Amino acid sequence: MLADKLQGFFESYRRLLVVVIVLIFIQVFEIILLHFKYDLFTGGFLQPFAYQTTEERLSFFIISIWYDLSLITLLASLWFLGADKLNKYGLKIYYGFSVIVVFFAALWLLVKFKLLSYFNDTVNLQIIKNLAGGSIKEALLYTSNEITLFVGLLSIAIIVVFFIIKFLSKHSFIQRVSTNSVAHKTYKKLLIVTMLATPFLTWYLSHNAYLRYGLEKKISFRLISLSLDRLSDIDFDGFGSFAYPQDKAIFDATIYPGAVDIPGNGIDEDGFLGDAIVQPVEKDALAEIAPIMGKHIVLIVLESARAELLSKNLNNQQVAPVMKSIAKNGIAINYAYSHAGYTVPSIKAIFNRSLVEDNPKVTLVQFLQARGYQLSMISGQDESFGNVSIDTGMKRTGVDYFDARTAINDRVFPSKESGSLRLSEARIVEQFNTRINQVDFTKPQFFYINIQAGHFPYAYPTMPKRLVSELIPRSEISEKNKDRLSATYWNAMANADWAVGKILEPLIKRELLNKVTLVILGDHGESLFDDGFLGHGHALDDIQTKIPLIINDPTIVVKEPIGQIDVAELMLRSALGLKNQWLNDKKAVFQWVGSITQPCMIKINKLLKDQVSFNRLLGGRPDLRTGY
């Protein structure tokens, strides 16, 4: 009798039971991870929101379960619909669904939380593309060891469960329950209810910053809210009515959050602070400079160079004695900044003197070629990534071009991906020595040299140990090993300093150093778990955006702060012997996280005591986790 009742119960509700079992697995593991990452239920240092009372926690749990239930029910309906159409029944159908959903959910959670152990929670798809040279694959390689271990353990678990299911499937009761075809009215009712109610709940939560803060970190809520947002994107501008921020003009594709606001047209395209004010058009100072002869120019860009480079000591040794000597005899600008905190826009800003694609200004390459300079580009990275070499004019006719793609057989890592290609400092010095013997110094020369020593993972197999006895392996990079990581990074910067010294040697030998304007700067900074995060391009703090800027001209006077778009004019005025004072009190450095067309965070860095920042992360609230 009892067996018949159990059989009837399992037959009627077996699909719903599968959904509940999968929900429990995902809910438990995700809640635990969310708590350890964000202190959601206890609160923590600079934690903007936390659910600490019984009522708050219960509300979050109920809504969290609802979204997991909605997503899993939808996936199950598609799975079972396919099974029904194929007349497939039995334990394997339920087992297959459970294993696949739990596997991919667990894999995504692993990748997500491993990445967030390096980076911060502002990370999105655009930012991941910018990391590790701009390749998503390269960013995911940070987690390769953990993913391999997880997949291995999960595979073993699946094999064990498979044999358990195979054993159980021989039992007559299990065979009857799992193979009988009956109506699943309760399951279908649940699917209909969730499909109807979830859009209304999502719309409400998109306007509730308190609940949205925790839910946006869940897989189910993010997938459902973004899917609904795309479905409601009637004007196809990338924004709908369900995710945050919402599109306030759903029938007008020119108005959406983060849109470029055209000044003076009476329309507030970005929905922020009204229509932009028409600003007076500034004259391009470089366009008005007469074609005169100037000094030779050497522009050196250091990958991931932190601002304290010149003052840093490790194991009682200076990290950058060569560059410190140059700064002592010239000038080191204390408050210089990268605009975006990652490589591609930084190099473009230096060469194009602008942050936008349609650049009205005379670019650095255009200016130099028009004034008779011979140009040599020597880069330790693949400058074709992000279309940098084309957009900056590095490959224009008459320019001598060499990068990591040119000498691909000399790369320091096996990968040939654009984001991974890099040359050693010794190879860059070798190429500079080759090129300097080829040029005619009776004509003005320009050298662009990119040194990749500071690129993640801050070492390669043959990198010299100038300041340390060992280099941290990539597989051991974690917050608990941040001291070893920091030592490896500064050893890398010591190698960059060595390369700068080797570049100066042939100039000194030829008695050309006093006829050269030398500029050294970083493309961006680098977090080394100082603030709990690793890398760059995902926060607007001094660690990730403040850079060293050194010029061997002690007469330069600069009103700080200064951005990378200003470097070319400073450098050229110095080389041409023109008045090079920079005393504009209204000067500001614009910075962003994400993409410039759709930033998730912006900052207007004006005077040191007057820094203004905005973001779209927490309903207009400052992002207390990063301080901006």
Distinctive features:
628 residues, 18 helices, seven-stranded mixed β-sheet, three-stranded mixed β-sheet, alpha/beta
Concise summary:
This protein is of the alpha/beta class.
Give a written overview of the molecule.
With about 625 residues, the protein is an alpha/beta fold. It folds into two domains: about 1-230, no CATH class; about 295-615, Alkaline Phosphatase, subunit A, CATH 3.40.720. The protein contains 18 helices and 17 strands. It has a seven-stranded mixed β-sheet, with helices on both faces. It has a three-stranded mixed β-sheet with strand order 12-5-14. A three-stranded antiparallel β-sheet has the order 15-16-17. β15 and β16 form a beta hairpin. The radius of gyration is 29 Å and the shape is globular. The chain starts with a helix and ends in a 13-residue tail after the last strand. The model is unreliable at about 610-628 (pLDDT under 50).
**What CATH architecture of the largest domain do you see?**
3-Layer(aba) Sandwich
Beta-sheet strand percentage?
A: 5-15%
Query: Rg, please?
Result: 29 Å
Strand order of the largest sheet: 4-13-9-1-8-6-7
* CATH superfamily caption of the largest domain: Alkaline Phosphatase, subunit A
Task: Outline the low-pLDDT stretches.
Answer: 609-628
Under CATH, the topology of the largest domain can be stated as Alkaline Phosphatase, subunit A
The overall number of domains is 2
Number of strands: 17
The CATH class of the largest domain is identified as Alpha Beta
Portion of residues within helices: 40-55%
What coarse outline follows from CA principal-axis ratios? globular
Tell me, rounded to a whole number, the average pLDDT. Answer: 81
Biggest sheet record: 7 strands, mixed
The number of helices is: 18
